UniProtKB/TrEMBL annotation:
Keywords: Acyltransferase, Transferase. The keyword Acyltransferase applies. It comes from Zasmidium cellare ATCC 36951. It holds the Pfam family Acetyltransf_1. Coiled coil: none annotated. It comes from the Eukaryota. Residues 128-139 have a biased composition (Basic and acidic residues). This is N-acetyltransferase domain-containing protein. Residues 55-229 form the N-acetyltransferase domain. One of its GO terms (molecular function) is acyltransferase activity, transferring groups other than amino-acyl groups.
Amino acid sequence: MKPTVGSVVKLPKLKSEDYNESNDIARTLAEKTRSLRLYALKTAPDAFASSYEDEVQRDLTHTLDRLGTHNAAHFFAVDRAIDPWAEKRHNEFFAELFSAKFVGSMVIVGPLARESFSAKKGPLSVGADRDSTRGKEPSSEPSHYILNGTFVDPEARRSGFGRRLIEAALATGQEDASNRGYDFLCTVLVDSENVAAQALYEKAGFSVSGEEKYVQRPRAQMGESKSAEGVAIKLELRRALAAESKAL
Ligand SMILES: CC(C)(COP(=O)(O)OP(=O)(O)OC[C@H]1O[C@@H](n2cnc3c(N)ncnc32)[C@H](O)[C@@H]1OP(=O)(O)O)[C@@H](O)C(=O)NCCC(=O)NCCS
């Protein structure tokens, strides 16, 4: 394994009304996010159900909407050390972040209605934007989250960014579930031929819980002109609510 350099950062949320192109921070964030996403779709076309050809047609507003989704937390790996965000240093944090190269990403979305997560509905991607626990009393049902958009630049792979992204995303999801008084359940769908990603998730504690078929959008760079059927492996990780949180 190469020595780990750089940072993994959790994007602080802006005010919901700031996710528009006239806000400099939001626009730069969206530009960097969109360009990493398009690069991911180009360099790892077989890892995502969506295609470069589809996503390149979506404008910045689509990325801004995704960044502003209330129940999604975005994580980025960058090529230099960055101090964690703190409220007082809001502008400095973003200045530092924008001077770095984005080399990896991961999103955790939730809590979701369990039935809303399916490879057919949101193929290897974000599930429905629903909060299954809001307004309910805690029960034995866990609070359910999904991982999405996992990518590390080929030049930065095998140096621990994937592991650091997953650890940061899981910690955020678990804390959110715990604050709601629920066990934490996280799901991810991986193409059955994606050995590296399956190994990454299994190393982080996920286990295979099933598989489903999904529709893979045609990828021009792979010579495809029609959608194809793929098989997605479903992996899950469950962490129980700490006993002291249950007692509260
Ligand atoms: C999967 C991916 C994110 C891994 O990122 P990474 O930064 O290289 O991962 P890490 O260096 O943190 O590796 C963590 C563990 O994952 C596993 N792993 C990572 N790459 C692997 C590979 N090519 N083959 C086998 N196992 C691999 C190993 O267990 C590794 O631990 P180790 O280095 O101690 O052996 C990266 O290969 C990638 O972006 N692939 C293309 C996009 C993709 O497949 N996304 C997933 C969509 S579901």
